[in-house]
Amino acid sequence: MPSLKQFIEALAPATLAETALALGNLASGAAVSIPVVVARGAHPGKCLWINGQVHGDELNGVFAALEFVRALPLAKLTGTVVVTATANPWALDIRRKRATQDDLDLDQSFPGHADGLTTERTAAKLFEAVSGCADALVSMHTMGTPFDCSPFAVYKVASTGGIDEMTLLKMLAQFEPGYACYMPVHSRPGELPGHLAGSIDYQLLEAGKPSFMIELGAGGRRDEQHVKQGVEGMAGVAGLLGMLEGATRPVKTVRRVKRYQHVTCTRGGLFRASKRPDAVLGAGEVYGEIIDLHGKVVETLSIDHPVRLIGIRRDPVVHSGERVSFVAHEWDDVAL
Asked: Which CATH class is domain 258-335?
C-alpha cells in the first residue's frame, strides 16, 4: 500500500481527496482507522497538517478542521492541507479521553511504538505519516468535558532551539486565543502529570517544524463560536505559511502566560462556581465553594494573589483532589 506521502504526490492539483490510516481491528473484527482528508492546492507549496482531536471527548477541533478543509478554495491554494479529524478513533467512539484498551494518554505517547500497546501503535502510525509530510502542525484540543473556558493556546519550546518562541506566538495568535500558555516539558508545580515531551506537537518541534496546541473551548460539546474561531485561525496560519493569500489576520499582541496552575479541591462535595472564565481575580477573591450533601459550605476557593481565571469547572460533582479551576499566575502581553 502506498504511504500517505505517495498518496498525496499522486493527486492532481486542485483536488480534495479522502483516505485513511489503518490501525487494526476490534475484537469483533471491525476495522479501525484514522480518517484523512487531503486538500491539494493548484500550486506547489508547504504542507499544513491539522490534527482535529487527540482525546476522544474534545470535539470543537474536529468540527473546525473539517469545516476548514472542506471550504478551501483549491484553485487559490498553494501547497497541501491534511486533516486528521480524529487521531484517536478508539476513544472517540466511546466518548472518553483515552482508549479503554490500555488507558494510555495518546498525547503523551509520541512518537509511539509500532509493536506496542494500542495507543502506542496509534501514535506510531500517525507520527510516521505526519513527520513524512507536514511542514507545520496544529494540534487541536479542548479543556476536559467537566470545564468551561474560552479558546486558549499551549506551546512548548524545542530543546534543539530550531523554532523560536516568536515564530510560534505569531502562528498561534492567528486563533486569537485569550492566553498563550508556555508549557515546559519538565515537571513543575501545578502541571498535570505525565510525559509532556510525548505530545505530537513537541515531537514535531524537535524535528524542526513549527507546531503548537489550541485548546478550542471545552470538551463534550460543539460550540458554534469556538468552531468559527478555530476555522478562522486555521486560515490565518495557512496565510502565514504562504498558502492562502490574504488570509492572515492582523493580530498585534498575544497574552503569554509564563506560569499557571491546575487548582484542586481539598473537600469532596458539590462545587458552585461564582465566577466565569476570563475573570481577573483579586488577592483572596472567592471564585467558588463546595457544599456537602447536607447543604453546608465545607470549602471556599480563592487564591492569595491576583490571577486570571482561564477555565473553571462546570460539572459540580467533585472528590478530594479533583481539579476545579485553571488559573494564570504570571502573564505579559507580547507585541507581534
From this structure: mainly beta
